[in-house]
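PROTEIN DESIGN WORKSHEET
SECTION A - STRUCTURE
LENGTH: 233
TOKENS:
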């Protein structure tokens, strides 16, 4: 498979390693304006860039009929526009706030726990995420997915960065500590006890492997998919 890397930073380099190990070829390593690159021999593009570049990168690929995987966070106010374009152009697209198998299992655990906790009025939920100090966005895309999944199954209607006084808002605390690849913890607290679930990435390999697996899965497909489709969970 010929892969174009849209973004060649920490994740782009990790994805390159995994892709080469799995027998793929990297045809472009793009770190600036995508418009000047030739996409005729690209089978799939993988975007791990920056929030302000993701929309242009993704829509360029869709218009060129190149399937595109995006893990970039912090651009989701334009997600619906991308989906509409993808449908209109009969393109292929997967976005995931987190591509690792472990976090996708954690997403399922979060939903299961939220459904149970929705019956119990005594517990309040909060989310904590910890990432490296170079991260541009806060809260993390993964923390937002976790909050939205909780909102779907409980009476919470919103999330808020840091503390909140509103009973229907989920507080998300974002901490920045050098070199931390990504930790997410969900805690339900009552006056009697605390229930917590946590995912801690040890490195970026899981994110990269998930993105390459998603790229292998989507080539020659049409449509908008998620990691649930890729992992069949
Ligand atoms: N979904 C997931 O599983 C994961 C998502 N991420 C997200 O991926 C993104 C990238 O993360 P890192 O690699 O750690 O960041 P990074 O800062 O190391 O790399 C981003 C790269 O994008 C480049 N860039 C700037 N403008 C660009 C443009 N117009 N087109 C293409 N590239 C451009 C920068 O030069 C930089 O090298 C972030 O949004 C992060 O939150 C990170 C890890 C896992
Ligand atoms: O920027 C990162 O590093 C990460 N970003 C993603 C996010 O915002 O959730 C995924 C992972 O936690 C690492």
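SECTION B - SEQUENCE
RESIDUE ASSIGNMENT:
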């Amino acid at each position: 498979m010929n892969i174009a890397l849209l973004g060649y930073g920490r994740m782009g380099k990790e994805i390159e390693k995994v892709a080469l190990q799995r027998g793929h070829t990297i045809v472009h390593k793009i770190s600036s304006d995508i418009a000047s690159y030739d996409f005729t021999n690209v089978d799939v593009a993988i975007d791990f860039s920056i929030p302000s570049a993701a929309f242009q990168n993704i829509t360029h690929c869709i218009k060129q009929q190149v399937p595109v995987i995006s893990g970039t966070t912090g651009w989701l106010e334009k997600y619906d526009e991308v989906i509409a374009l993808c449908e209109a152009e009969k393109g292929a697209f997967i976005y995931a706030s987190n591509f690792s198998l472990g976090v996708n299992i954690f997403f399922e655990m979060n939903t299961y726990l939220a459904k149970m906790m929705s019956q119990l009025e005594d517990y309040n939920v909060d989310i904590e995420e910890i990432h490296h100090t170079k991260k541009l966005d806060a809260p993390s895309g993964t923390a937002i997915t976790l909050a939205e999944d909780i909102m779907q199954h409980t009476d919470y209607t919103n999330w808020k960065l840091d503390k909140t006084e509103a009973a229907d808002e989920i507080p998300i605390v974002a901490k920045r500590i050098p070199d931390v690849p990504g930790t997410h913890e969900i805690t339900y607290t009552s006056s009697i006890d605390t229930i917590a679930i946590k995912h801690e990435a040890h490195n970026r390999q899981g994110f990269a492997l998930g993105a390459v697996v998603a790229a292998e899965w989507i080539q020659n497909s049409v449509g908008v998919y998620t990691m649930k489709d890729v992992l069949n969970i």
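SECTION C - NOTES
The longest strand covers residues 124-131.
The chain has two domains: 2-99+205-231, 101-200.
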